[in-house]
Specification:
With 100 residues, the chain is α+β, with helices and mostly antiparallel strands. It has one domain (2-95): Winged helix-like DNA-binding domain superfamily/Winged helix DNA-binding domain (Arc Repressor Mutant, subunit A, Orthogonal Bundle). It is built from five helices and three strands. The protein has a three-stranded antiparallel beta sheet with strand order 1-3-2.
């Protein structure tokens, strides 16, 4: 239980920054095969170093994955991890809606 709490807290902290939330949203809406970092940078209009920092945070939290294809890094949302996080919040924090 403590590990799940720590993991969920780390994931929520990663999502607690507007730029990272914007990056995640762009990746979720991006192509199924993945969104190139250059496309994210252009879409979000942020410096490459800033984007790299935020992508690393989201990746370390297990919310996105990266795959190298040639000279490109393609980023994909980890929908299983995102679903597990929302399920955890619903079940453990909101008591499955019992309080509603």
């Amino acid at each position: 239980m403590a590990r799940k709490l720590e993991d969920s807290a780390a994931q929520l902290a990663a999502l607690g920054h507007p730029v990272r939330l914007g990056i995640l949203r762009a990746v979720v809406k991006g192509p199924q095969e993945g969104t190139p970092a250059g496309d994210l940078q252009a879409r979000l209009d942020i410096p490459a170093s800033t984007l790299s920092h935020h992508l690393a945070t989201l990746s370390q939290a297990g919310l996105i994955t990266a795959e190298r294809q040639g000279t490109f890094l393609l980023y994909r949302a980890d929908f299983k991890a995102l679903r597990a996080l929302t399920d955890y919040i619903w079940e453990e924090c909101c008591q499955g809606g019992a309080c509603c």
